[in-house]
Amino acid sequence: MDAIWIANLLNILTSIAVLAVVAVGLYIIFGLMQVINMAHGDMVMLGAYSTLVFTQAGFNFWTSAVLATLIVGIIGGLLERGVVQFLYKSGNLSTMLATWGVGIALQQTVKLIFGPQGQFVDAPVLKMVNIFGVSYPSYRLILLVLCVLVLTGVFIILKKTRAGLLVRATMDNRVMAEAMGINTKQVYLYGFIGGSALAGFAGALISPITNISPLMGLDYVTKSFLVVISGGVESMMSTVGGSVIIAGLQNFLNIYIDSTNSWMIVLAIVIIVIWIRPQGVFTKK
Amino acid sequence: MMNQRNKKWSVLVVPVLLIILSFLLPDYQLDLIATAIIYGLFAASVDFSYGYAGILNLGSALYFGLGAYVMAFGLKSGGDPILLILIGLIVSIVISLIIGYVGFRVKASQVHFGLIGLALTLGFEQLAISLYDLTGGSNGISDVPRPVFHLFGFDLALSSPFSYFIFVIVIVSVLLYVLWNIASSGFGKSLLAMRHDETKLETLGYNPMTLKMIVTAITAGVSALAGALFVPISGIAYPGLFGVALSMSVLIWVQLGGTGTLVGPLLVAVLLKLTESSLSSSFEQTYMLIIGLIFVVMVIVAPSGVWGLLRRFIRKRKQGQSPVQEGGESA
Amino acid sequence: MKHLSKLLVLLLIVSIFAVGCGNNQSSNGNTNSSSNEAAPSEDAIKIGVLAPTTGFMSTHGEAIKLGAQLAEEMINEQGGINGKTVKMIIEDDKSDPAVAAEKAKQLINKDKVDFLIGTGSSAETLAVIPVAEKSQVPFIYSLDGECKTCGLEDPNSKAKYIFASGPTPQMLLESFLPSMMEKFGKRVYFVGSDYVFPHFMNDIAENIVKENGGEVIGSEYAPSDTTDYSAIINRINKEKPDVLFLTLPGTAGVTFVKQARQFGIFENMVVTGSATFDTEAYSAIGQISEGVYVVNRYSDLLDNPENKAFVEAYKAKYDPQYPIGPTASSGTYGVVLAIKAAVEKAGSTEADQVVAALEGLKLNLPQGEVEIDKDNHVFNQHIYMMQIKDNDYQIVEDLGMTKHPEFEDCSVGQ
Asked: Which of A86, A136, B23, B185 has the fewest Cβ atoms nearer than 10 Å?
């Protein structure tokens, strides 16, 4: 295979992996708990800004990334306790509106503190590495590997551990779960913390390769909702599949045509996909 | 709820008062107020689908932008304004029907419709920038002339801010009246019923899908009209009209003004737009943050908006209870 | 619910009256009669400044505002213009063209300004031009960009009241690119953001490259909010051009440069561009754009008495965080000085007389010698090749006085 193709392939894989981490976070909140969190993209933004603040305060990049993930997890928890928990009864529409409003408030706060212009974090490693005969930025490889590891970790937690079992039991049937003594309130809280932390983690990781701005979350919230909608919510793997469709397709098309047109094509495909399979592509029923 | 006679009365009186007022104001002020009222119409149209039928579109600016761009492009190349308004209307309605047809397929999920709308408006904003031969790209289409209508052999030139202001007042009043009548008709009642319980409505022989599609089309049409009206005042159409910021603002207006009242969102839009333009820029950013926070609080404590709170407030007072507590809650 | 509908009607009327009257008061007397119209404009010369201090042009807007305020203070300290004080009325247009047009109308009709200056993006400028031209208020816009000084009806004649103080792409590139190719090689690769200005800029640049015996290896565009440029960077690395020319205004440039450095582009070729490494963005691009070549009209290191005075006053007043006097600040400052010179020459603030005085006006500004072209209203000015080194814009070469060819590529209103 041509060297440029390997590089292109690695780029596509990286973008899929990053989107998948954000989307799996949304899958936990939206797919499992049926809560529409329009502020999910802003969790990515907060993750990036937290990393910026910590690196500027003199912390090493990796420490900053971990701290940022934790902080965004806590913010997610606060969002659930402070806003979302009051709206479980009022239904989807209210949650959607309220979290959308929280998103606006977060963006405005960040804009007030940091200004609307882009901010930048330095990559922890600048070297190029040789892989399959092409030289590729080592940070991007690390990013790819970390995302895959985290996704595997989340998969195992959801499938094999007691925590995952509790989440799945609650989502299956809340009343039944409560009757069996599961504290469903806590499950919702932890779900929110976990989902937000994943978004924050993704935000921290992409901070050295992108420009950090108050509105950067918008792109992620739109894409990850489209991922979850088109992939389906049957299992975490359908979300990963959805990421392959959206990020993979867009970045593949991007090799040949400009990204505005490739995004419009992806959108058209997503609309057709939802038309044909409203329940999602990777759903068995 | 609203007294029919009172309603007709106010529909007639308010525009007349505004027109009288317009004799006293300088031109640039008329432009400012006309713009605010057009945003108000946009807010009312979004409220029509959200407040009555419970359809939430996160990308409402799409239709506003389409209406605006068609109008700007057409007026610039000397097209007939009525024809242009119609084209903008039809394009918007067709797109809204496609989104609706796909988005409403998953019955229980409001996300599908809302998000496809958002994604599309983001896409259109990008398209407006990249198709610069057609749209003027990021510069937009500027120096658009004010329209001249050719009606029944008469040429009606709305070339002054004053005549255009009166035109806007008349059109907005008529549209608002029409929306109001639809909302209080049997159709409007079935919408409210659908918002309440879709399955039950279905068993009564209605098709929720059809209802939703009709509502979406009406909203798209009125929004596009608002967009078309907007263009001649500032003389420009630009990609920001498809922007997320506008889609967000309109939802804020609807929520603060009170869902399902049409006039509430219109009023709030007018008020906020007029305050915004007289605010100092240093306060502007904090102002947006405060509005955002009030919005979130409103969604939680007063889902039906200021209007609903007021209604509750008055009801309580009539029942002879102390209004102080209620007032405290809204503050 | 009778109360509600009455309340509603009342509220609407009161609110609109309140806004109407409130503003009527502030523009007291001016709107009603023409007899006392001249009275307020005699106290001070009013300059309306459209500064996008919020929104995506905010760094430029801030610089415009600082430049205007500094000019106001310095001129008034030295006795004003013809004995009158100068008053800047600064309005934020929020980087939004509709707001810019609205604010321009307000400045002209309510504040009765004598001149308009400022605006950030081309879109804002284009929105204000028809307003200013039709109201017959001289408008000197600050930023560089395609020529916009032609008439609204006829793109080959000049607009009466519109002036451009920044250089056009033709002026920036006509000697800069040949000079770069001579120094580093003739194979050039172009990358731009996908909107009007970069397309326009790169089209002109590509023509200049071809006319001077160079080779355009590639030409690419990406939306300005692109977050991942790796596909483009891969192609550039494969082609190995001598010079990489970027037109990625705003943060797009930083994102690109940052990723390009990780992919090792800077070791393989010379990087340059226009509107990409602006001083206003320096806080973000500083470190990573070390070594990049820049073409522009101003550096704080320019050695002339006007610039020394400007830099000294600027540092004393604002204590800037970075060792750079932003181009937009010095540009705005220069525009105000030009207005001062023209008003003094005309002996009046009457629009037509000031326009006549501005045409052909020669003066020395911080950026060097400037002559306002009497045929196309563009400021003829020096252009410099610079390199970002040691935290500043080091002057490599003065490319000399440049002039925009007539109304080439001028378009207002699409």
From this structure: B23
